[in-house]
Design brief:
1 helix, about 80% helix, mainly alpha, transmembrane, about 45 residues
């Protein structure tokens, strides 16, 4: 793959970790949104 030749093995590993971090952040956002809607008293509003 041209991208793999450009980035190298280390670059691919870094990009994989960055994507995993983004997916984890989106998951945490979904969870906190769900908790806030189900338990509004915990949201501090």
């Amino acid at each position: 793959m041209p991208i793999e030749r450009f980035l190298g093995r280390t670059g691919i590993n870094v990009m994989t970790r960055v994507r995993a971090l983004i997916v984890a952040a989106i998951g945490v956002n979904f969870i906190t949104t769900g908790i806030r809607s189900e338990l509004p008293g915990l949201a501090g509003q």
